[in-house]
Amino acid sequence: MPSPFDIEYAIENTRVLHEPDRRIDTFGSTRFEFQLVSELMDHVNATRIRTGHITAEKPLILRPDPESMANFDFEGFGPQGQAFGDFLRENLHKLAILKYGFRFQMSDMQEDIVHDSMEEVCDKLIEDIRRSGNPMRAVIAGVDDTWEICLLKFTVEMIEKSQKINLFDFKRRGLLE
User: Fold this and answer.
1) Model confidence band, residue 107 (pLDDT cutoffs 50, 70, 90)
2) Do both 117 and 148 map to the same domain?
3) Among 41, 21, 17, which Cα is nearest to 32's?
4) Are residues 45 and 19 in the same domain?
5) Which residue has the higher pLDDT, 2 or 36?
6) φ, ψ for residue 14 (rounded to 5)?
7) Are residues 46 and 65 in the same domain?
8) Mean pLDDT across 14-29
9) How far apart are CA 108 and CA 51, in angstroms?
């Protein structure tokens, strides 16, 4: 199990070199292809390429439960706290959170070791995307022993970049205020 230091190191050293052209679809599942590149620490000029797919399920609208939110306790707060509680109760129907679900399909997972520098391998993969025109492929440079954390960082970034678009789509269809 990785230590907090290992997790922080993986997050800080993950770079998305090429992100998919598309974002997470609002009303359907989205399948991204990833190529996660990492240096093998015990070999010179040896780079591991992990290839697989991530499926992002369509975002779901979650609304707070009115029963649990109706009993806000603002003990120690003055009239402003109470006014804020009243505001929340009156506007509870407008609050919504988008929930994103991801499925990592490890069955599609492949690993290859290439005897080139990580920089050369990354350049070749990005050039291959430019030639093929695959709009759903990401190239991610990460840390070999905590590569899954690097992949999770990528998914969080895709959520962040998709959220405004998804909210706009929900509002346009009248599903959110």
Assistant:
1) low
2) yes
3) 21
4) yes
5) 36
6) -95, 130
7) no
8) 91
9) 8
Question: What pLDDT score was predicted for residue 154?
Answer: 92
Question: Position 144: which residue type?
Answer: D
pLDDT in tens, 67-92: 655 566 666 666 777 677 677 677 76
Element (H, E) at 102: strand 102-114
Token pair recorded at residue 144: 């070999």
Q: What is the pLDDT of residue 36?
A: 96
Q: Return all residues near 142 (Cβ < 8 A) that are at least 6 apart.
A: 10, 13, 14, 15, 36, 37, 38, 149, 150, 151
Start-to-end C-alpha separation, the chain: 43
Burial letters 15-46, b for 16+ CB under 10 A, else e: ebebbbeebbbbeeebebbbbbbbbeeeeeeb
Round to whole Å and give the CA distance between 72 and 162.
Answer: 32
Cβ atoms of residues 89 and 69 within 8 Å? yes
Residues in CB range of 16: below 8 A, 6 or more apart: 138, 139, 140, 154, 157
> What pLDDT sits at residue 66?
61
Single-letter amino acid code for the residue at 119: E
Q: Same structural domain for residues 27 and 73?
A: no
Residue 113 resides in a domain = yes
Residue-number span of the structural domain to which 91 is assigned: 60-99
Structure tokens at 31: 């399948």
Question: Does any domain span residue 177?
Answer: no
